[in-house]
């Protein structure tokens, strides 16, 4: 029975439908503007001001054009954010063994590297993208990550994990372990760096201020011992050590279950 209410439709994706034209009769393509420039400016603004500070009007001002000039190239703000998401995925350098030769470029076959080394490269590059672009983690949870760069990333990751020797019915589960670990680690790392920049202090200064506050509020002897054993003279060094060892634990788990 009809209730008079309308069923909400899910947000459309730029990857699921062809772009509808918004040009009016007499409109002309803006001079000196293209998709690459618009997406690059979008990423710069997102890096500088975050998702909360981003708007199509702000982007148009950055580009020195009108908002309608931007809409000549992209239908909605959501579609533009999807393009920025995929552009960020395109920054991830993938193992050439997993991607294969690139069309138009000369490629000399290299000695295949061990899958563990390839997986460390994928994980480290993914982490780097999340840290460089703190807005990326939010978009990954909000939009369909199925653009062309994301497809290449997933294809390469599957190829790397298949080389581990895991049966096919366990490959996606193993990738989920690595993906979610890197996503969580890189998200927290990127947000801490962004918080430091917003506060006008270095990450090391903010970290030591935090530790001093915690020490004043509770018994910290055991935690201090662990932190000292952790090693690393800076926040970056501590994060790198934690990431490397945690990834080694994940790889060791994959190896153990493969053998079993």
From TrEMBL:
<keyword id="KW-0238">DNA-binding</keyword>
<keyword id="KW-0805">Transcription regulation</keyword>
<protein>
    <submittedName>
        <fullName>TetR/AcrR family transcriptional regulator</fullName>
    </submittedName>
</protein>
<feature type="domain" description="HTH tetR-type">
    <location>
        <begin position="32"/>
        <end position="92"/>
    </location>
</feature>
<dbReference type="Pfam" id="PF00440">
    <property type="entry name" value="TetR_N"/>
</dbReference>
<dbReference type="InterPro" id="IPR036271">
    <property type="entry name" value="Tet_transcr_reg_TetR-rel_C_sf"/>
</dbReference>
<dbReference type="InterPro" id="IPR009057">
    <property type="entry name" value="Homeodomain-like_sf"/>
</dbReference>
<dbReference type="InterPro" id="IPR050109">
    <property type="entry name" value="HTH-type_TetR-like_transc_reg"/>
</dbReference>
<feature type="DNA-binding region" description="H-T-H motif">
    <location>
        <begin position="55"/>
        <end position="74"/>
    </location>
</feature>
<keyword id="KW-0804">Transcription</keyword>
<dbReference type="Pfam" id="PF02909">
    <property type="entry name" value="TetR_C_1"/>
</dbReference>
<dbReference type="InterPro" id="IPR004111">
    <property type="entry name" value="Repressor_TetR_C"/>
</dbReference>
<dbReference type="InterPro" id="IPR001647">
    <property type="entry name" value="HTH_TetR"/>
</dbReference>
